[in-house]
Amino acid sequence: MDFEIAPEYQEMRETTRRFVVEVLRPAEKIVEEKQFIDAVMHRELVSEAKRYGVWNAFIPEKWGGAGITDLLPRTLIREELGATSYVLRSYVDNGMFNLDTATEYQRERYLLPALEGEKRSFAGITEPDAGSDNGAMKTTARKEGDEWIINGTKHYISGVDTSDFGVIYAMTDTSKGKHGGIGAFIVEKGMPGFTVGPRQVMMGHRGFNQSVLYFDDCRVPAENMLGDSGGGLRQFLTMIVGARMKVAAEALGAAQYAWDLGVEYAKQREVLGTKLIEKQGIQWMLIDAMIALQGARLLAYEGSWKADQGKDIRVEASMAKLQCTEVAFKVIDTALQVHGGAGYTEDLPLARLLRDMRGARIYEGANELQRYIISKALWGVGQ
Predict the structure, then answer these.
(1) 364 given a catalytic annotation
(2) Which residue of the set 147, 264, 364, 368 is catalytic?
(3) Which one, of 19, 6, 149, 143, lies nearest residue 78 by Cα?
(4) pLDDT band at 95; cut points 50, 70, 90
(5) Mutual orientation of helices 280-308 and 71-81 as an angle, nearest 10°?
(6) Residues 50-77: pLDDT tens digits?
(7) Residue among 320, 321, 363, 355 at smallest CA distance from 336
(8) What angle separates helix 39-52 from helix 7-19, to the nearest 10 degrees?
(9) Mean pLDDT in the chain?
(10) Using CA of residue 43, residue 44, residue 50, residue 53, what is the dihedral sign?
(11) 366: pLDDT strictly greater than 90
């Protein structure tokens, strides 16, 4: 296995690191305090991302992106993004759509403006009774003339408050369920029958707010369906492997950032006449964290490399997502412990990193689901 990437990708990685340090990191406290990215700040961040050349880094060139489509360079670049807040990463890692399967109308009206930063979007799949088990989805869509009528409730939907439209997944054929009975629909905010409910206050991910969505006979034009009426979940599952690798890479970046802070603090902080870094107990804490982090990193790199060789990495993605987020949480906690009381304050980013990483062990499939996927692949069973 070769984990080297092309020089142009390495250059993008270094540029991304500078963008994180010079542009995104100064914005972190503002986002944490306001818990919101307003239109003015959004335009400024989009403008800066374009100026640095990192905007839409992973979008194909034919759609105006940088064209980094191989997974290994994506993983390496996403490590750099993990060192900033969840919501700010989207100013490099933007785009959750497959433009090749969208119609010309859908691309022109919704998707391309989103990629230009002119519109913002969200995805709605999770429901009160359907999280990891998409087959339990109760939101329905029935065809009536040239419209689809959607009824149901979604929750924990991120970014709705600042978005213009979203992709909503709904059951189109209950007899088929998740095996060909779920469709995906572009729904604009303001469409009759679509109501954004209360904000759901979360432990972390400040600035990327979650909301409840209500659909009460929401009429959506038939031309807003993405793909065919039963292909919605298939589209989602195609993206989920990449999404899990994305979570893994970002977890590595967050953990590395925290570890670096811990080492830097231990070199400066003096207790009982000696630097913390000179104390064996602290040394072992940091060394154990470093070893665990490197092991998780190799797991993510291997899965990324295999994907670029054309291999199916569904299991590797689950392994990487599981291990990287579990290890990252422990590494961040170790760095916080090294800092003592200072680490527990909001003056440092460690509290935010820990809060956000706790969420990473749940979204894109809880880590218990990843264990189920792995056990099913290994032994054909898992409950």
Answers:
(1) yes
(2) 364
(3) 19
(4) low
(5) 150
(6) 999 999 899 888 888 888 999 999 999 9
(7) 355
(8) 150
(9) 92
(10) negative
(11) yes
* Residue 119 identity (one-letter amino acid): K
Cβ proximity of 276 and 266 under 8 Å: yes
With both helix axes pointing from N to C terminus, report the angle between 280-308 and 314-339 in degrees, rounded to the nearest 10. 160
φ, ψ for residue 61 (rounded to 5)? -60, -35
Q: In this structure, which amino acid lies at residue 258? A: A
pLDDT at 219 over 90: yes
Q: How far is CA 233 from CA 134, 222, 354, in A?
A: 8, 18, 31
Task: Answer whether 81's CB lies under 8 Å from 54's CB.
Answer: no
Average pLDDT in the 270-295 region? Answer: 97
Question: Does residue 178 register a pLDDT over 90?
Answer: no
In angstroms, how far is CA 177 from the centroid of its own chain?
26
Instruction: Express each pLDDT in 335-350 by its tens digit.
Output: 999 999 999 999 999 9
List the alpha helices (DSSP H) in the chain.
Answer: 7-19, 25-34, 39-52, 71-81, 86-89, 104-106, 112-115, 232-268, 280-308, 314-339, 350-360, 367-379
Residue 97, pLDDT > 90, answer no
Residue partners of 260: CB distance under 8 A and separation at least 6: none
Domains, the chain, ranges and CATH? Answer: 7-100 (1.10.540.10), 121-226 (2.40.110.10), 234-379 (1.20.140.10)
The percent of the chain in helix, strand and coil, each rounded to the nearest 5, is 55, 15, 30
Backbone torsions φ then ψ of 6, nearest 5 degrees: -60, 150
